[in-house]
Amino acid sequence: MKLTTMTQVTVDGVMQGNGGASEEDRKNGFERGGWARGKGDDETRAFITQTVQRAEAFLFGRRTYEFFADAWKMSTHPIGVAFNEAPKYVASTTLTAPRWKNTTALRGDLAAAISELKAKPGGELQVHGSGILTRWLLENDLVDEMILLVFPVIVGQGARLFPETGPDLALDLVESRVDSKGVTTQVYRPAGRPRYVTA
Fold first, then answer.
1. Which residues pair with 125 in a beta bridge?
2. 3-class DSSP assignment, residue 48
3. Parallel/antiparallel/unpaired status of strands 145-151 and 2-10
4. pLDDT per residue over 115-166, tens digit each?
5. Measured between alpha carbons, how far is residue 12 from residues 8, 111, 151, 158 in Å?
6. Which of 14, 93, 161, 169 has the fewest CB atoms within 10 Å, i.e. is most exposed?
């Protein structure tokens, strides 16, 4: 399976609080949640739905898993149906009693467990949100494709997808478009380390 991440971010890279409705959105005093609500047009919403529907399975960090379970497990929306029906894997050493059907907690050697999932035949293993997990996957060369939905807003605070310091990574742009409300969709493939100018 191809491992694909999909993340909604602001122009300044913040991924926290896009919906603005959960405790996670308020973590560390963050008070600028809801910045993604009502921002994308019908085409962007359709793209998100179609992307989720093509997943063979989903991989979550623990906090995102719990948030999504609360938000989607009773949903009849096509996104909720896709999340509910597909296998779900959670990178967690503490999750002992998953409360969302078709869930498996990944313990032990996480890189080996994810590599094993990727080796299975099929479509996509998708990661939504899960910033800490997404950064770890990129650092360990496990991401095949990264989708960024960039919303035209600068919020000035909150958890960012990429920290101020961290590993570097070159990206090849596969696809890019902008919707009628200014939301850009950028699809990238990791391409090794960037080249820098030498003195």
1. 3, 57
2. helix
3. parallel
4. 999 999 889 999 999 999 999 999 999 999 999 999 999 999 888 999 888 8
5. 12, 29, 10, 10
6. 93
Is residue 3 classed as helix, strand or coil in its secondary structure?
strand
| Ramachandran assignment for 54, one of left (phi > 0), alpha (psi -120 to 50 degrees), beta (any other) | alpha
Structure tokens at 50: 């179609």
- Which residue type sits at 160? R
Cβ–Cβ under 8 Å, residues 58 and 128: yes
Question: Which domains, from first to last, does the chain contain?
Answer: 2-190 (3.40.430.10)
Helix (H) or strand (E) holding 174: strand 171-178
- Whole-structure pTM over 0.85, yes or no? yes
Q: Which is nearest to 144 in space by CA: 117, 175, 118, 110?
A: 118
